[in-house]
UniProtKB/TrEMBL annotation:
Pfam families: AP_endonuc_2 (PF01261). The keyword Isomerase applies. This is Sugar phosphate isomerase/epimerase. It comes from Aerophobetes bacterium. Coiled coil: none annotated. The keyword Isomerase applies. GO terms for molecular function: isomerase activity. Keywords: Isomerase. Residues 43-257 form the Xylose isomerase-like TIM barrel domain.
């Protein structure tokens, strides 16, 4: 592909995955976000909650100054609080919805255009339909709240069902069912497909993307380790591309991008966010892992034959 990738997508990165220390020590939040803001390879960034109001104001100013597109990722809020939007307990479900509504407020506050979240645990085949119905109710409630405040998009990320997160959503066909139902009432909802979750779901890029193409609004680029349960990055750990025992490298990124082009997701009229979700191992440098990802994307892009 000879044309610039920036004609077809806004290249982003998940701040709190590239710099996981921010989830433990908020003091590093601004310093590490500054590194992304200074790197003009990125035109978008995905951030998580900022608990300190003083830090939040500085984050808001930095993001605006950097001219970055911003998405708010609610995954840390959900996972650290064990929130479940499809819980069979009405109390637990309401607690989850209320927390995501707080996240909606936070997203608006920092100038984000999108809020990303994940579904709750898969209850098993016998109760799966009921759980999906409850998830749909929760999403509609959140979409209505977001719409009452502005134009924030609400995006459900598709996760694995059997390996680590064991989420209800889940396989592409079932993600489509949820999206179809929510979109009947709310146009501010969409789906996110993550390259790193595709092997965990035992899907190909085509199997993961084609069923949800009409609802796809965001994509992640990442890697996973599936075959070796003893590997330090086994499961949904988002290690660097090309790691020994991993599933994704340049070739897989090429195939993923090809399908995204095929369905019209990558486009010139409204370039979507496509973000790296990568995490350094304990003995790895975040900057080197980020450089790895940028090299992989550049190489994959020039290999594209569109």
């Amino acid at each position: 592909m000879q044309e610039s990738m920036y004609r077809y997508m806004r290249v982003g990165i998940l701040h709190f995955m590239a710099y996981p220390e921010v989830l433990k020590e908020e003091g590093s939040y601004l310093e590490t976000l500054q590194k992304i803001a200074e790197d003009d390879f990125f035109t978008a960034v995905e951030v998580c909650e900022v608990k300190d109001d003083r830090v939040k104001e500085k984050v808001k100013k930095l993001l605006k100054t950097a001219h970055l597109s911003v998405a708010y990722c609610a995954h840390p809020k959900i996972l650290t609080r064990s929130l479940d939007l499809n819980s069979f307990s009405q109390k637990e479900r309401k607690k989850a919805v209320d927390q995501i509504k707080i996240a909606v407020d936070e997203a608006y506050e920092i100038g984000a255009e999108e809020l990303i979240f994940l579904s709750g645990k898969d209850p098993g085949e016998e109760r799966r339909d009921d759980a999906r119905r409850l998830l749909t109710f929760s999403i509609k409630d959140i979409c209505a709240y977001a719409k009452s405040r502005g134009d924030l998009r609400i995006t459900l990320e598709i996760f694995d069902r059997e390996v680590e997160k064991r989420c209800l959503i889940g396989p592409a066909d079932e993600a489509r069912m949820v999206a179809e139902e929510v979109r009947r009432e709310f146009d501010n909802f969409g789906l996110l497909v993550d390259l790193s979750h595709i092997p965990l779901l035992n899907e190909t890029p085509a199997e993961a993307i084609l069923p949800v193409k009409d609802y796809l609004v965001h994509a992640h680029l990442g890697n996973c380790v599936l075959k070796d349960a003893q590997h330090p990055a086994y499961g949904d750990s988002h290690p660097r591309f090309g790691i020994e025992g991993g599933e994704n490298d340049v070739e897989e990124v090429v195939k993923f991008l090809e399908v995204l082009f095929e369905v019209g997701f990558l486009n010139e009229d409204n370039p979507p966010m496509v973000s790296f979700e990568i995490k350094p191992l304990a003995d790895e440098s975040a900057q080197v892992v980020i450089a790895n990802a940028k090299r992989v994307l550049r190489e994959a892009w020039v290999r594209l034959n569109i």
